[in-house]
Structure formats: structure tokens, C-alpha cells
Amino acid sequence: MIHLICGPIGAGKTTLAHQLATQHGAVRFSEDEWLSQLFVPDAPEGLMEQSTEAIAGWAVSKYPRCRGQIWLLCQQLLPLGIPVVLDGAAANKAQRDLIRQKAVDNNVGFQLHYIDADADTRRTRVMARNVEQGKTWSLDVTPGMFEMMESFFEPPIGDELESAQIIRS
To answer: In 3-state terms, what secondary structure has residue 51?
Structure first.
């Protein structure tokens, strides 16, 4: 079973991913954690103080590499009957469709979890997360990065929502 979580920044995706992994005995993969551990330590000095465009330009090639490695592990886990929770790679319909197709290709179930909250709540959460650096923190998100991420996310609509679990947080 593949549990795919989608939602805008600060909606609670990683919190939900932790809950689902525990609930289903699944292995959880959060892209931001992989990016933070594998690439951020080697980022150019001062990158996080640069423009959001510069940060995005640096990160754009890193996420597909994380996704590739995550999927290699999923392909080992799924045939063993071990469910996976994917926190990331679901910002638009094309990305979600790709994961749906992977579930079909691997003859496993698929569940989309769509989590959302209003923008002010999400912004407050993200800025608090930067300070607290708790269980769901992977990297600091600047106000500019928050706005940029807002523009990237395409919520599921129509057929995508028919069997989705919808959560308002």
C-alpha cells in the first residue's frame, strides 16, 4: 500500500505522515528530511540568505534525486507487503498521477491523503516550526520561500478527491 500525502506548506503533512506510519506499520519517507540530510550540509555558504529564486534553483535538481532513491527503497518494501507513506512528490496532479501509476504497476493499493488549513494558520505554523525545530522540522523556511511554495501547490480536484482522505487541520 502506498499512502501519498499532499497539501500546501504548513498544512501538517509530516505530522500526518508520522501518524500514518505508526497506524499502518509503514515506512515513512519525507522528502524534506532527505534533502536536509543529504544536500543542505553541502549547500553553498550563505545560500539560505539569498533570494528564493536562488534557493529554488539550487534545490530543483535535488528533489528528483531524493525521489529516485526513495522509490528504489519503496520497490524493495512493497513486494514484502510493507506499506509506505510518501510525504512529498505530490505538489501537482502529474506528480500524484505518477505515484498512482506506480501503485498500479506494483500491484499495490493507493490512498491519497489531502491535508489543508487556511494560509494564515499554515504561515504561523511554519514560522513557529523554524524556531522550535521539533520533530517535523527539516529546514528553515523563510517568508519568501513560503510564498513561493504556495504558488507551486495545485490542490487535488474532481476525480482525485473521490477516494481521497480529506483532512482540515
So the answer is: coil
